[in-house]
Design a protein that fits this description.
Chain lengths: 211, 260
Amino acid sequence: MFELKNVKYKNILDIEKVKLNKNFVTAILGSSGGGKTTFLKLLNNMISADQGEIFFKNKNIENYEPVALRREVVMLPQDPAIFRGSIRDNFQITEKIAENGSSKNINYKDLLKKVSLNKNLSDNADNLSGGEKQRLALARVMLLEPEVLLLDEPSSSLDKKTEEKIIQMVVDYVRENDRTLIMVTHSPEIAEKYADRIINIEKGRIVSWKN
Amino acid sequence: MENDIINIQLLQLVFAYIFVLVLLFIVKEKKIGHKAEILLASVRMTIQLVAVGFILEYVFANQNPYYSLLILLIMEIFAIYNIYGRVNSEISKKLKGIIAGSMFLGTSISIFFFVLVVVRLDPWFRADYFIPLSGMLIGNSMTGISLGVNHLINGFKDNKSLIENYLMLGAEPETAVKEISNRAFYNAVLPTINSMMGMGIVFLPGMMTGQILAGASPIIAIKYQIAIMMGILGSVTLTVFFMVNRGAKTFFNSRKQLRL
């Protein structure tokens, strides 16, 4: 699905060659500041590589219309911003900004249940805790049903039990719906348990990868 | 009473400078500083106004469309450089261009509409009307656009993560920054709206005061004041609108990536 060839970005990332398969769950491990987030941002063209090429479905991503690409490859940052207003507003704004949702009939309540967020749709999103906000942001991404989900430490603010539950849910969702998941995680256990492929990035370089 | 203008003699004018001395005394006693700045401002104002007085005397006596347009151009250029100086952050080359373009376009549309449709100047370049009216529109637009640019730049800096979130979810840049642009626009036109609220009650506006002092009837002065306020509102609105709309785009590159 993705292929990176001789990709360099500032002094942060230097990737010789890597392929990321369709319908795979890929986990990216590595110490902080090693270039993991930069790696994800390159994949949905939030930033462009200084050198090298990135292909998405065999087409150079620089040849995609950037917004169209980001609607297929949606990224959830580590510290997601929550839109002002209620939980329902957050879903509605998401659908509106991505010009997505009119044809789909996704129940917001079901989404909340999926991410284990026991809240009312009318609750103020600002009052949610860090972990709850992270789950709401994840639900917003799932609402868009993108082909590829790029998740940057999606469970960093969650306790161990909730973290397992959320990752299990996302992985199930990806597998059931033939999606592709690329997620940065701090936890080797999670990577081992759920990923089809683990890529280890240190100081901007891929130091190991295994299936 | 109509032409009974009290001409201030030079000696009387000297007395007015006592107010500057009062300020200098206070800042010295209270160790506030900035004495040189106050002196410079007083001297600059005096020299600038005396020079403008002589120039206007000449231009009024020799009415010519080129003179009026030349002075308009000079005012625009000074205003634009003033805006660049008033913005607290670094402005990109592209944004500078947009500020200049917005000032020229917004104020020109307003000035020509105002002199041709509202005041119906005949000839349109009549310098004793054209220049002061243009000056008021340009001056207020300059303040509006300075506020707008500051709010726009700070809005982008303070909301970088929110904008990125929007983009990551597949939003167009215009959608991602809509709230920031709208807030910058509102904050830029707000002082004009506020001054309209207080006008006539909290203070008597400068133009009206000037006309009354020059012997005009308060009713005529009020009509001019209302008209000029509408002109100012229009000019501020247009310049800030052009700047915010085009300016917000300069924060993104051709790949719709945030450049901060």
